[in-house]
């Protein structure tokens, strides 16, 4: 009974994090983008600096009519947002927030594999949406999504494999336990590759060719309205949280910090996640969209060689220090 | 099955007659996987077939999990669900797979395919049953298919087949590059990828007759 209660409590907590953090990132994006562009951003909803803007947005989305195009493949069209969103919820379960077994939803022995595998499944949602909408812009968006995933999955996995080699384990808490501060310069190339490839997998600017709103009208999501569109948006922001948390855990030492690692570990994790999320928003404001061929070229000719070089470096150092 | 075999099974391990919860779940997931696989090959809608394949492959991953082979299960999800199916859908989208049934999705090979499938399944089931007849996995004990165990077995006992497989994959990779770089002999452009040196000069010297067959879909 106690065990069941423990599991239920953990799942509820993970679910709460899943609902709150993406909204916080979204609101931060509103405000940060606005201030970087010399605007104020939302100022009215909720009173204080428009803090409730996304809550109001959610209410608006829920009131809208749920339209399914006449020629669309109805069931797949309706199923797609769930397929896009659920994987990120599952990944959050295995990400350790602090030291010890109390600060992670569920310890999975192959946690790194689990996280990357399940994240990859989320893209199926975009593909289903792109095909089932019966819209040429959606189909183009789906095609670009698939091409982008195939190009960027490999450097992401290779960069993650480098960390797994360094730590000698694929368990996320295990990686954090063997983390040393000098891993930071040692794995920095892998970190950049992982973060960049993750951004591309999430289709965030400057890698937002698949959803390019000004040319193919939000790609796979063209035909979506109301709550289902909101779910896709939520999936994007949940993806940002998951990517930043994974980068934090793998490359930035998670709950390790200059001081107070015992009690304040979760603060360090959240702080690092917040800084990375800020970088994600910053990149959106500062970089223009990459063209499709530039996207592919970046992945195959820059990121993959860099990731392979990082693996070689990891192997050499690992053998040298043994 | 003769009574002697029954008693043998009863003495060597847990029997079939009082299944545990995990065994029931294993059987049910197996049935669902089989059903999804059957729909995959019988449905007339191409993209639906690919999506049912996702269900079937995911079901196999769940079976691995139930057998405590955690690492293999996640590799299954990563490779098959995350990459192979995406590649498949990519290919289907490139060919403009229509929404609704495709009239030419049926082929006359159906009986032969069914026969081959039944024979292959029978052979596999027979081999597996024969090989693991009296082997039982202790599902309640420590995880036996963890990453550590899989890695040790793979890189200690099976390292030669593993390396042979990687050479096979390398050959496939090079083959794919060669195929995709095949130049059109009718194309006089020497800057085309792959048309270098001797090859380019040979194509330039040849009379350039139009060959429409070479432009077919690849």
Automatic annotation (TrEMBL), chain A:
**Range of residues in the leader sequence:** none
Coarse class of the protein's main subcellular location: membrane
Keywords attached to this entry: Cell membrane, Membrane, NAD, Quinone, Translocase, Transmembrane, Transmembrane helix, Ubiquinone
Query: Where does this one sit in the cell?
Result: Cell membrane; Membrane
Q: Provide the E.C. number(s) assigned to this enzyme.
A: 7.1.1.-
Any coiled-coil regions, as ranges: none
Pfam families with a match to the protein in the record:
NADHdh (PF00146)
Annotated membrane-spanning segments are: 7-26, 79-98, 110-133, 154-176, 182-200, 229-253, 265-286, 298-321
Q: Which reaction does it catalyse?
A: a quinone + NADH + 5 H(+)(in) = a quinol + NAD(+) + 4 H(+)(out)
Q: How does it sit in the membrane?
A: Multi-pass membrane protein
For this chain, the family text in UniProt reads: Belongs to the complex I subunit 1 family.
How does this polypeptide assemble, per the annotation? NDH-1 is composed of 14 different subunits. Subunits NuoA, H, J, K, L, M, N constitute the membrane sector of the complex.
Its biological purpose: NDH-1 shuttles electrons from NADH, via FMN and iron-sulfur (Fe-S) centers, to quinones in the respiratory chain. The immediate electron acceptor for the enzyme in this species is believed to be ubiquinone. Couples the redox reaction to proton translocation (for every two electrons transferred, four hydrogen ions are translocated across the cytoplasmic membrane), and thus conserves the redox energy in a proton gradient. This subunit may bind ubiquinone.
Q: What is this protein called?
A: NADH-quinone oxidoreductase subunit H
Q: Which organism is it from?
A: Streptomyces cirratus
Gene name for this UniProt entry: nuoH
Automatic annotation (TrEMBL), chain B:
Q: What residue spans carry the region label Disordered?
A: 185-218
Question: Compositional bias of type Low complexity: which residue ranges?
Answer: 192-208
Its primary localisation, in coarse terms, equals membrane
InterPro entries cross-referenced by the UniProt entry? NADH_UbQ/plastoQ_OxRdtase_su6, Nuo/plastoQ_OxRdtase_6_NuoJ
Q: Where in the cell is it found?
A: Cell membrane
Would I find NAD among this entry's keywords?
Answer: yes
Q: Which reaction(s) does the protein catalyse, per the Swiss-Prot or TrEMBL entry?
A: a quinone + NADH + 5 H(+)(in) = a quinol + NAD(+) + 4 H(+)(out)
Q: Which Pfam families match?
A: Oxidored_q3
Q: Which domain of life is it from?
A: Bacteria
Which terms are listed as keywords in the entry? Cell membrane, Membrane, NAD, Quinone, Transmembrane, Transmembrane helix
EC class name: translocase
Q: What membrane topology was assigned to this protein in its record?
A: Multi-pass membrane protein
Name the residues that span the membrane.
Answer: 24-42, 49-67, 73-92, 112-129, 158-179
Q: Does the keyword Signal apply?
A: no
Tell me its EC number(s), please. 7.1.1.-
Q: Which family does it belong to?
A: Belongs to the complex I subunit 6 family.
Report the protein's function. Answer: NDH-1 shuttles electrons from NADH, via FMN and iron-sulfur (Fe-S) centers, to quinones in the respiratory chain. Couples the redox reaction to proton translocation (for every two electrons transferred, four hydrogen ions are translocated across the cytoplasmic membrane), and thus conserves the redox energy in a proton gradient.
Q: List the PANTHER family hit by this protein, alphabetically.
A: NADH-UBIQUINONE OXIDOREDUCTASE CHAIN 6 (PTHR33269)
The protein in question is named NADH-quinone oxidoreductase subunit J
Q: Which organism is it from?
A: Streptomyces cirratus
């Amino acid at each position: 009974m106690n065990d069941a209660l423990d599991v239920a409590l953990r799942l509820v907590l993970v679910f709460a994090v899943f609902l709150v953090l993406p909204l916080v990132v979204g609101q931060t994006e509103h405000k940060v983008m606005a201030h970087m562009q010399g605007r104020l951003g939302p100022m009215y909803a909720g009173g204080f600096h428009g803090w409730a803007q996304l809550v109001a947005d959610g209410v608006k989305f829920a009131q809208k009519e749920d339209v399914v195009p006449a020629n669309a493949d109805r069931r797949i069209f309706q199923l797609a947002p769930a397929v896009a969103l659920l994987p990120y919820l599952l990944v959050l379960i295995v990400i350790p927030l602090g030291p010890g077994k109390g600060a992670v939803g569920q310890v999975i022995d192959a946690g790194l594999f689990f996280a990357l595998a399940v994240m990859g499944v989320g893209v199926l949602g975009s593909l289903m949406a792109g095909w089932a909408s019966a819209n040429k812009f959606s189909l183009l968006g789906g095609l670009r999504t698939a091409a982008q995933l195939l190009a960027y999955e490999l450097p992401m996995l290779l960069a993650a494999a480098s960390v797994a080699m360094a730590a000698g384990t694929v368990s996320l808490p295990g990686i954090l336990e063997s983390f040393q501060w000098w891993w930071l310069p040692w794995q920095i190339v892998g970190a950049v590759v992982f973060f960049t490839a993750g951004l591309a997998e999430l289709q965030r600017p400057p890698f937002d060719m698949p959803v390019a709103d000004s040319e193919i009208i939000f790609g796979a999501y063209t035909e979506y309205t109301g709550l289902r569109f909101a779910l896709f948006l939520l999936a994007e922001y949940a993806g940002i949280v998951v990517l930043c948390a994974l980068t934090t855990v793998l490359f930035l030492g998670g709950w390790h910090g200059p001081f107070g690692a015992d009690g304040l570990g979760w603060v360090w994790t959240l702080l690092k996640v917040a800084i990375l999320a800020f970088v994600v928003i910053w990149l959106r404001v500062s970089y223009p969209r990459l063209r499709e061929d530039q996207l592919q070229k970046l992945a195959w000719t820059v990121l993959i060689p860099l990731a392979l070089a990082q693996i070689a470096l990891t192997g050499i150092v690992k053998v040298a220090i043994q | 099955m003769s009574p002697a075999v029954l008693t043998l099974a009863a003495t060597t391990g847990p029997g079939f007659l009082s299944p545990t919860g995990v065994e029931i779940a294993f059987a049910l997931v197996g049935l669902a996987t089989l059903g999804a696989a059957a729909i995959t090959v019988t449905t007339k809608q191409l993209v639906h077939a690919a999506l049912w394949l996702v269900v079937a492959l995911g079901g196999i991953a769940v079976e691995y999990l139930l057998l405590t082979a955690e690492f293999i299960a996640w590799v299954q999800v990563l490779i098959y669900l995350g990459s192979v199916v995406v590649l498949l859908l990519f290919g289907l989208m490139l060919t403009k797979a229509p929404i609704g049934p495709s009239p030419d999705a049926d082929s006359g090979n159906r009986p032969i395919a069914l026969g081959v499938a039944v024979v292959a399944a029978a052979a596999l089931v027979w081999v597996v049953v024969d090989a693991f007849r009296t082997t039982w996995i202790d599902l309640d004990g420590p995880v036996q298919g963890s990453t550590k165990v899989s890695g040790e077995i793979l890189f200690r006992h099976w390292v030669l087949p593993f390396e042979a497989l990687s050479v096979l994959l390398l050959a496939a990779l090079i083959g794919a590059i060669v195929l995709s770089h095949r130049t059109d002999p009718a194309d006089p452009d020497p800057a085309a990828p792959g048309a270098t040196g001797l090859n380019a000069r040979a194509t330039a010297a040849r009379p350039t007759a139009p060959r429409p067959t070479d432009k077919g879909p690849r």
